[in-house]
Design a protein that fits this description.
single chain, mainly alpha, two-stranded antiparallel ribbon, about 10% strand
Length: about 90
């Protein structure tokens, strides 16, 4: 199966009502879709300057790293968070 170019993935994900946020192991945001921007009240440019620690009320660095490492080996488990908006 050929890889989907990022531009096409962005177009498709922006049509979704589900928020998509892609991060690195340090919890920095590298990709967000329009639903994520709406959910958090930030523009895409603003949101991409933040990390999960900025938007997750109960962020725990050790737990995040553990989850990030687990996801590298298995499918993404259900995750429940409490987030904060810009406003």
């Amino acid at each position: 199966m050929p890889k989907l170019p990022l531009k096409e993935f962005k177009f498709i994900s922006d049509k979704s009502s589900e928020a998509y946020l892609l991060t690195d192991r340090e919890a920095r945001l590298h990709f967000v879709n329009q639903a994520a921007c709406s959910m958090f009240g930030y523009s895409e440019k603003e949101l991409l300057t933040l990390s999960i620690a900025d938007i997750d009320i109960h962020y725990d660095e050790a737990k995040y790293i553990e989850l990030f490492d687990l996801i590298q080996q298995k499918t993404i488990p259900p995750i429940e968070t409490r987030n904060k908006r810009k406003d």
